[in-house]
Amino acid sequence: MFKANITVTLRPSILDPQGKASHHALSELGFEAVSQVRIGKYIEMEIDAQNEQEARAIAEKACQQLLANPVMEDFHLAIHEIVAA
Fold this sequence. Notes:
Elements: E1 2-10, H1 17-28, E2 40-47, H2 52-67, E3 73-81
Protein backbone atom coordinates (compact mmCIF):
# COMPACT_ATOMS: atom_id res chain seq x y z
CA MET A 1 0.00 0.00 0.00
CA PHE A 2 1.26 3.44 -0.93
CA LYS A 3 0.22 7.01 -0.22
CA ALA A 4 0.36 9.71 -2.88
CA ASN A 5 0.74 13.30 -1.70
CA ILE A 6 -0.33 15.54 -4.57
CA THR A 7 -0.08 19.31 -4.89
CA VAL A 8 -2.00 20.97 -7.71
CA THR A 9 -1.19 24.60 -8.51
CA LEU A 10 -2.15 27.08 -11.18
CA ARG A 11 0.50 27.53 -13.84
CA PRO A 12 2.54 30.71 -13.35
CA SER A 13 0.99 32.29 -16.47
CA ILE A 14 -2.56 31.91 -15.08
CA LEU A 15 -4.00 34.74 -12.98
CA ASP A 16 -4.95 33.66 -9.44
CA PRO A 17 -7.76 35.92 -8.14
CA GLN A 18 -8.08 33.96 -4.89
CA GLY A 19 -4.35 34.29 -4.27
CA LYS A 20 -4.47 38.01 -5.09
CA ALA A 21 -7.38 38.55 -2.67
CA SER A 22 -5.55 36.60 0.04
CA HIS A 23 -2.41 38.64 -0.54
CA HIS A 24 -4.39 41.87 -0.22
CA ALA A 25 -6.04 40.65 3.01
CA LEU A 26 -2.68 39.61 4.47
CA SER A 27 -1.26 43.05 3.64
CA GLU A 28 -4.21 44.68 5.41
CA LEU A 29 -3.47 42.50 8.46
CA GLY A 30 0.11 43.75 8.55
CA PHE A 31 1.91 40.91 6.78
CA GLU A 32 3.98 43.31 4.69
CA ALA A 33 6.79 40.74 4.20
CA VAL A 34 4.48 38.55 2.07
CA SER A 35 5.10 39.48 -1.55
CA GLN A 36 2.91 36.96 -3.40
CA VAL A 37 0.23 34.36 -2.65
CA ARG A 38 -0.85 31.52 -4.94
CA ILE A 39 -3.68 29.17 -3.91
CA GLY A 40 -3.73 25.49 -4.87
CA LYS A 41 -5.06 22.09 -3.82
CA TYR A 42 -3.54 19.33 -1.71
CA ILE A 43 -4.74 15.75 -2.23
CA GLU A 44 -3.82 12.49 -0.46
CA MET A 45 -4.63 9.12 -2.01
CA GLU A 46 -3.97 5.63 -0.71
CA ILE A 47 -3.12 3.30 -3.58
CA ASP A 48 -3.04 -0.49 -3.50
CA ALA A 49 -0.13 -1.27 -5.84
CA GLN A 50 2.63 -3.86 -6.14
CA ASN A 51 5.46 -1.29 -6.13
CA GLU A 52 6.23 2.42 -6.08
CA GLN A 53 6.42 2.71 -9.87
CA GLU A 54 2.92 1.25 -10.27
CA ALA A 55 1.56 3.55 -7.54
CA ARG A 56 3.17 6.57 -9.25
CA ALA A 57 1.68 5.61 -12.61
CA ILE A 58 -1.80 5.31 -11.07
CA ALA A 59 -1.47 8.68 -9.29
CA GLU A 60 -0.17 10.42 -12.42
CA LYS A 61 -3.03 9.03 -14.51
CA ALA A 62 -5.56 10.19 -11.89
CA CYS A 63 -4.05 13.69 -11.98
CA GLN A 64 -3.99 13.83 -15.76
CA GLN A 65 -7.56 12.59 -16.17
CA LEU A 66 -9.36 14.21 -13.22
CA LEU A 67 -7.49 15.93 -10.42
CA ALA A 68 -5.61 18.60 -12.41
CA ASN A 69 -6.74 20.66 -15.39
CA PRO A 70 -3.87 20.19 -17.87
CA VAL A 71 -4.56 23.53 -19.54
CA MET A 72 -4.34 25.64 -16.36
CA GLU A 73 -2.68 23.57 -13.63
CA ASP A 74 0.53 21.73 -12.83
CA PHE A 75 0.82 18.90 -10.35
CA HIS A 76 3.63 17.50 -8.25
CA LEU A 77 3.40 14.24 -6.43
CA ALA A 78 5.35 12.19 -3.91
CA ILE A 79 4.79 8.50 -3.28
CA HIS A 80 5.43 6.92 0.12
CA GLU A 81 5.05 3.32 1.15
CA ILE A 82 2.64 2.81 4.03
CA VAL A 83 4.26 0.57 6.60
CA ALA A 84 1.87 -1.38 8.83
CA ALA A 85 2.52 -0.82 12.53
